[in-house]
């Protein structure tokens, strides 16, 4: 999800291995078990990301407290630690020279680009993507590059002025102030700036006395009155436990039962609508040739070579049909015999394909055959083994989607093997909308749709999304999948989860294609 400026901490061992490098990298993403649904059956977001603001003096231990909170939380959805330091204003060459000479006040609240900081945090809290600026302490300058960020369920913002501005405070669900002894903060600052930022001891002390200490007294310390909880800068395990207990309670209250609700909604829609297929579901002409292809693909005894051959052929048919729904404009050309001829050409600024791993993978080959040099991205959506809820585990999107000013004019072919309960389709479409892609610019391409599944709810939630498929099956059967341990042995009796199987279906398309 992120660029090089963000470090991923997957477990305690990784945290220890990267501890030294993380001291100089304030922005951190900590991934665990993926992001559960943040939207309802109507496709609209129902909960924001949970945002924590942590303020305190320079070197008081704010970043350390943030990481302690995450370690204490244990198994949680994706968490991001976002540093105020990324949002220093861009300096002129003259100001950079003064900064190197310790003659510019970087501890004043005016040194921070608060409008940009607020805008980025507002987007992240609203479950939208954002691009975070990159600041170099060695150069005393905000760099031209930015880092893409999306998908956090919990955001921890830390900085000396994190509680100073009302517009920032209004975004926090929990406000924390880290209180630390002034002598200890100075000692920590000297050690950090000399070791990590190449400063001299005299320079650090001069800057501290000239700017840091007055800014703390005048701007930072007064914001402690806004905090919901004050945390010691050391020996703070009790306070950390109180904070993490509150966060767990809040995350539990925000949890949804999306797949279960989808299943019940699908039944209601089928009973009320009779025929749930709408005009935005485009079915390939049911020719004898197409029926012959599906016969081969549905046959559990088909050999792998035949299966791959006909999947690739069908994928090409589907993409060619989907291409009909892109905008075209007239174009006049001159033929080899010098005769003008008016035809058509694509009228799009950007077009790309997004594959839902991994059953959407075979469709990417069809897309690449039809559109040369097309940008391809991917999403990984899997079911939680305990709850059956869809989890967003991985996002890798082309630049034309990552940057919102480009995403508005981008057309996306969303590729998946089938639509059963539509849980993965919901999450994928919602992700694209969060990035600024227009709903009517999304064309969902799939081999198979279950008529009695979640496609009806999907179309009600996103009525402008077109779905192109080659077959519509009638059945969606509820089944029980046993859980197994690493040795392949069943766990306790009755341990497992509910799954839904499309009938007659084609089985696990990705497994049959790649294995």
TrEMBL record:
Occurrences of domain Phosphoribulokinase/uridine kinase (ranges): 51-233
UniProt-listed CDD domains: PRTases_typeI (cd06223), UMPK (cd02023)
SUPFAM superfamilies the record matches: P-loop containing nucleoside triphosphate hydrolases, PRTase-like
Presence of keyword Ion transport: no
EC number: 2.7.1.48
Record Pfam families: PRK, UPRTase
PANTHER family, per the entry: URIDINE KINASE
Name of the molecule in the record: uridine/cytidine kinase
């Amino acid at each position: 999800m992120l660029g090089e400026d963000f470090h991923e901490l997957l477990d305690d061992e990784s945290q220890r291995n990267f501890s030294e490098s993380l001291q100089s990298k304030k922005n951190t993403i900590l991934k665990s078990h993926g992001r559960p649904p943040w939207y309802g059956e109507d496709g609209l977001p129902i909960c924001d990301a949970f945002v924590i603001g942590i303020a305190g003096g320079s070197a008081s231990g704010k970043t350390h407290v943030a990481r302690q909170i995450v370690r204490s939380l244990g198994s949680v959805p994706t968490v991001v630690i976002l540093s105020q330091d990324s949002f220093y204003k861009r300096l002129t060459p003259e100001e950079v020279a003064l900064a190197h000479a310790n003659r510019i006040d970087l501890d004043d609240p005016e040194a921070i680009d608060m409008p940009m900081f607020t805008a980025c945090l507002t987007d992240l809290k609203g479950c939208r993507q954002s691009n975070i600026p990159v600041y170099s302490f060695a150069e005393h300058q905000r760099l031209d590059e930015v880092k893409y960020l999306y998908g956090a369920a919990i955001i921890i913002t830390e900085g000396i002025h994190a509680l100073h501005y009302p517009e920032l405070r209004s975004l926090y669900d929990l406000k924390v102030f880290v209180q630390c002894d002034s002598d200890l903060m100075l000692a920590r600052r000297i050690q950090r700036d000399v070791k990590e930022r190449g400063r001299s001891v005299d320079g650090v002390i001069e800057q501290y006395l000239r700017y840091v200490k007055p800014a703390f007294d005048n701007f930072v310390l007064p914001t402690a009155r806004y905090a919901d909880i004050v945390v010691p800068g050391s020996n703070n395990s009790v306070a950390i436990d109180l904070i993490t207990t509150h966060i767990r309670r809040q995350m539990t209250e925000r949890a949804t039962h999306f797949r279960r609700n989808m299943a019940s909604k699908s039944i209601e829609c089928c009973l009320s609508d009779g025929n749930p297929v709408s005009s935005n579901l485009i079915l390939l002409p049911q020719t004898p040739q197409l029926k012959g292809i599906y016969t081969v693909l549905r046959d559990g005894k088909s050999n792998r070579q035949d299966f791959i051959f006909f999947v690739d052929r069908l994928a090409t048919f589907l993409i060619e049909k989907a291409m009909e729904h892109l905008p075209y404009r007239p174009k006049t050309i001159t033929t080899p015999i010098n005769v003008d001829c008016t035809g058509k050409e694509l009228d799009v600024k950007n077009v790309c394909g997004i594959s839902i791993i991994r059953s959407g993978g075979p469709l990417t080959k069809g897309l690449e055959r039809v559109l040369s040099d097309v940008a391809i991205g991917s999403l990984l959506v899997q079911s939680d083994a305990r709850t059956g809820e869809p989890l967003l585990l991985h996002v890798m999107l082309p630049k034309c989607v990552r940057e919102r000013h480009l995403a508005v004019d981008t057309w996306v072919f969303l590729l998946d093997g089938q639509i059963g309960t539509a849980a993965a389709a919901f999450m994928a479409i919602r992700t694209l909308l969060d990035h600024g892609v227009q709903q009517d610019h999304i064309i969902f391409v799939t081999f198979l749709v279950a008529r009695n599944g979640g496609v009806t709810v999907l179309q009600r939630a996103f009525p402008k999304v077109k779905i192109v498929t080659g077959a519509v099956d009638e059945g969606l059967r509820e089944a029980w999948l046993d859980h197994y341990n690493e040795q392949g042995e069943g766990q306790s009796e009755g341990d497992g989860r509910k799954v839904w199987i499309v009938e007659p279906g084609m089985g696990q398309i990705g497994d049959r294609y790649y294995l």
